[in-house]
Amino acid sequence: MISVRVPATSANLGPGFDAVGLALSLSMRISLERAPEPLVEVRGEGSHLIPEGPEHPAYRAAKFVAEFIGEPNVNFHLIQENSIPVARGLGGSAAALVGGAVAANDLLGRAMAAPDLLNLVCDLDGHPDNAAPALLGGLIIGTLTPEGIKSVRLEPKNLSAAVVVPDFTVSTSSARHALPESVPHRDAVFNVGRSGLLLGALATGEYELLRVAMQDRLHQPYRAHLIPGLEEVIEAALENGAYGACLSGSGPTVLAFSPEGKAEGIAASMKHAFEERGTEVKAYALDVDLAGARVEPPGEVAARLPEPVA
User: Fold this and answer.
1) Do 253 and 89 form a contact (C-beta atoms < 8 A)?
2) Distance of CA 188 to the CA centre of its chain
3) pLDDT at 301 > cutoff 90
C-alpha cells in the first residue's frame, strides 16, 4: 500500500484572490492499493462529511491518473486519515485530490511526469491556489492557461501562521453567491497594488509590509456577513503582533502571518475574539510546509500533528 501525506493550504491570502496559496503544517494521509472492487475508508476529522465511495475526491483523482497512463479498469482500496477541518477554507478537498493522484502515480509506476501531475490536480480542483501548494509545498502564485498552469514557488523564511477554525461551515456556493458580478474600478486597482506588495514582501522577507499588503476589497467585504466577528478577529491578530491577517479561502477560517515564536499567542487572541461573540473555535500555531505531498515509507507511523492552542 502506498501512503502519501498532503498538507492543508490557505488560499487567497487577502488580495491574491484565486491566485496565491500557502501550504501549512496540518495534513491528511491518503493510502492506496489495488483492489478487486472500489473501497474507500475515511477516518479522523470530519469523517461523517466525506463521501465513502468512488465519488471521494482522492479516489476520483486516482482513477484519472490510471486512465491517463492507460489502466482505466483498475480499482483501488483507499484510506483517508484526515486532520484537516472539512469545509473550513483549508483546502481539504484539494489535498485529497493531490493525495489520490500522487498515490496512484506512485502505485502504478510513476508513469505521469511532474508537470502533467500538477496540471491534472489543478484542473480537477478548478484553480491552482489550493492544489498547487498542496502538491509542491511552500507559497505558490499561479494561474491556469490554455497551455496548463503557469506558476512561481516561494519558500518564505522565518514565518509562522496563526490559524483559527470556527465550529461552523461556509458552503462554497454561499461564498461564491456573496460575490458581486462586478466591482468598482478603484477596488480592482486597490487589490492589484496590494497583490504586488504581498508577493514582494513574501519574496524578500519584508514582512512588516503585510499589514497593508493583505488588505482586500474583492472578496472579504462581501463574505464578512458569513463570518460574524471577522473584522474584530483580524484586528485582534494585528494588535497582538501579527504581520497581517485575512480570511483563509472562502472561510470561515482566519489566518494571520506571525513572527516565529509568536503564533501561539496571536492564535489565542484570535480565538478569544471569536469566543467573545459566541463562536467556538480551534486555534493552531502552524509552520509553512515546504515539502508538499510526499510518499511515506511503508509502515511509517502517522506524523505528529499540531495540537490546538488552549
Assistant:
1) yes
2) 24
3) no
List, in sequence order, every residue forming a beta bridge with 143; answer none if it has no partner: 150
| pLDDT of residue 299 exceeding 70 | no
**DSSP state for residue 14 in the 8-state scheme:** T
> What are the two backbone dihedrals, phi and then psi, of residue 295, each rounded to the nearest 5 degrees?
-75, 130
List of domains in the chain? 2-154 (3.30.230.10), 159-287 (3.30.70.890)
Dihedral sign, CA of 288, 291, 294, 298? negative
Whether 200 has a pLDDT exceeding 70, the answer reads yes
| Confidence (pLDDT) at 310 | 63
CA distance 241 to 179: 30
What does the alpha-carbon distance between residue 139 and residue 151 come to, in Å, rounded to a whole number? 10
Which helix (DSSP H) or strand (DSSP E) does residue 181 occupy? Answer: none
Cα separation of 234 and 269, whole Å?
A: 10
20/263 Cα distance (integer angstroms) = 21
